[in-house]
Design goal:
With 376 residues, the protein is an alpha+beta fold. The protein has helices at 7-23, 26-33, 41-51, 69-81, 88-102, 105-117, 228-263, 275-304, 309-334, 346-356, 363-373; strands spanning 122-125, 142-145, 148-159, 166-172, 182-188, 194-199, 208-221, 265-266, 269-270. The longest helix has 36 residues, at 228-263.
């Protein structure tokens, strides 16, 4: 792969970075954290109207921009830098690809235009109380109700559920196991028996909820019982995009740290001039550079070579998840006492790194799944 972005892609990154610096700095994430709303609806409309971010990788035939995962990865990276507190990842990087790869043409016509325009926000309800992000471990069963289904059960840790008006729920046909019988179901926010309970989270910039279903009607997306292949590809792409978000957060954490140690004076010298501090920053730089390159490679593979998408996603999440945690740990320590205060932004990056590290599976889980798939 040629890691050099095109001139148009570089211009897109610069434009997005300027937009976010002006309208969505980290102070905006703090404001959302302290407000009763789960996200800033005005900012979301601006992102959709001025930058068309929700529809970036949606085909033009369905109201999107028709770009690919490299452009979507650029957006995820830049949003990760500012700790964007909103439903971009859940709706644009997770739910929309799932609908694209699992749904049929009728499903695309029905839902993609509103998702691409930002009018609708969706999220994927996959994880259950067992804690596995592997679709093969889903236990929730969907009972047939004519051409559609009904659900009774719950999903744990659904991201941005409070903002969503469409839930894509992974369930299975009764009596099936593993990849067999997996079915994707669409449940609107106002469906009978649907209950969303917000959960406390270490990271206040991304909302988490428990979603319960009590004999809730659900519309089948795609072919019943045959969602496994499309779902696995969508999750691989979403994992690559999440790796881009991690890389962006790690880059910003390092930038803030280098700036701080260059300004903080001790013993009449900037602390950044001390050899131990230089070594720690150099180690963090290696982590960040590895994370950026790996995330970009994975997003390219996930689009261009679907057969290798899962392998690339496992590698990317393992590398970037660990790099983000290590970089923010260095950030915390090199900021000294001020790094432990609420007023400093350090803790926000530390918390995002910890929670994002477990979203779609932690580094250890991805390494284990990689080993199983390679029969190691």
């Amino acid at each position: 792969m040629d890691f050099a972005f095109s001139e148009e892609q570089d211009e897109f990154r610069e434009m997005l970075a300027r937009f976010l610096a002006e309208r969505a700095p980290v102070s905006e994430a703090r404001r959302v954290m302290e407000s009763p709303e789960s996200y800033d609806a005005t900012l979301w409309k601006q992102m959709a109207g001025e930058l068309a971010l929700p529809g970036l990788a949606v085909p033009e035939a369905h109201g999107g921009q028709g770009f690919g995962l490299l452009e979507l990865g650029i957006a995820a990276e830049e949003l990760g830098r500012v700790l964007y507190a909103g439903p971009f990842f859940s709706s644009t990087c997770l739910a929309t690809p799932t609908l694209l790869h699992v749904g049929g043409e009728a499903d695309h016509i029905r839902w993609l235009p509103s998702l691409a325009s930002g009018e609708s926000i969706a999220t994927l309800a996959l994880l259950e109380d067992g804690g596995s992000w592997d679709p093969a471990d889903v236990a929730l069963e969907a009972t047939s109700d004519g051409s559609d289904c009904r659900l009774t059960g719950a999903k744990a840790l659904v991201s941005d559920a409070e903002a969503a008006d469409l839930f894509l729920v992974v369930a299975r046909q009764p009596g099936t196991r593993g990849r067999d019988g997996l079915t994707l179901l669409a449940v609107p926010r106002d469906a009978a028996g649907l209950e969303v309970t917000a959960l406390e989270s270490l990271d206040g910039t991304r909302g988490w909820s428990r979603v319960a279903f009590r004999d809730t009607p659900a519309h089948v997306v795609g072919t019943p019982g045959e969602a496994a292949a499309g779902l696995e590809l969508a999750l691989a792409q979403a994992t690559a995009l999440l790796a881009c978000e991690c890389a962006g957060g790690a880059k910003r954490a390092l930038d803030l740290t280098v700036a701080y140690v260059g300004e903080r004076v001790q013993f009449a010298r900037p602390v950044g001039s001390f050899q131990a501090v230089k070594h720690r920053c150099a180690e963090a730089l290696l982590d960040v550079q590895s994370a950026v390159v790996t995330a970009q490679w994975a997003s390219w593979v996930a689009e261009e070579d679907p057969a290798q998408a899962r392998e690339a996603a496992h590698v990317a999440k393992a590398v970037t998840g660990d790099a983000f945690v290590r970089t923010t740990q260095a950030m915390l320590q090199l900021h000294g006492g001020i790094g432990f205060t609420w007023e400093a932004d350090v803790h926000l990056y530390v918390k995002r790194a910890r929670t994002t590290g477990t979203l779609l599976g932690g580094a250890r889980e991805h390494r284990a799944r990689m080993a199983r798939e390679l029969s190691l």
